[in-house]
Amino acid sequence: MTVKTDIRDTGVMVITLNQPERRNPIGHEVRRAIVAALSQAEGDDTIRAVVLTGAGGQFSAGGDVRDQRDRSMAEQRERFACVKDMVERMVRFSKPLVSAVEGWAAGGGFSVAVACPTVVAARDAKFVTSFTKVGLIPDMGLLGTLPARVGPARARRIILNNRPIGAEDALAIGIVDEVAEAGGALELACTIAAQEAAGAPLPRQFINDWFARDVSAALDYEHSLQPILLNSADAAEGRAAFLEKRAPNYKGR
Fold first, then answer.
1. Cα dihedral 88, 121, 152, 106 sign
2. For 193, phi and psi rounded to 5 degrees?
3. Other residues' Cβ atoms within 10 Å of the Cβ of residue 227
4. Distance of alpha carbon 85 from alpha carbon 83, whole angstroms
5. What is the structure's pLDDT at 221?
6. Cα 167 to the chain's mean position, in Å?
7. Distance, CA of 77 to CA of 89 (rounded, Å)
8. pTM
């Protein structure tokens, strides 16, 4: 089971990325499962809030590199339509949505974590973008969500430098909203989600819709470009280098 769900007595649904042996990659089937879980939560009045986390002490290593190869442009675009659907649901979600980050949130894992309006990280959590290291632009909405949190100049630097950011630094610059002790991110996230659920839902929906505007533009941009990049020679080299644990040799094509 790549994603599992659990509904707590408080009415908080916990969605867990559940491939710990692979550090919880967010491939196509995982994205579809997240969409299904969010849709269930949206339509169930007994579910008051949602927390998204990862199994095995890791949030997510990002997109599934093994899932990106040998696909036509049409297939890549179809898959990015699912990415767009997932992130749009997240940033416009009508109920509290909180990410609980333990360990690494890398690449698409970073994107999915900050697509949640509230981000809780364990003190030993680390965030890194990683996209340009494999010949790609950021996706899953990061070109919209990260600048909204840290400002455009800092977001560009974070994306291009690919330097890991610890939880305390992430808190200081706005990537993270709350820091928990190691192993405590999920419990703090569930507490915050239950507290936020006491607020009026209509203002939350309208506020989320307002802040989602730039994310929608970012999703349209990545939907037009990322499928092209995924089929580029540089992206193929980036994937090969990643799997072979070596430095890539990019040619700009």
1. negative
2. -60, -45
3. 19
4. 5
5. 93
6. 16
7. 18
8. 0.92
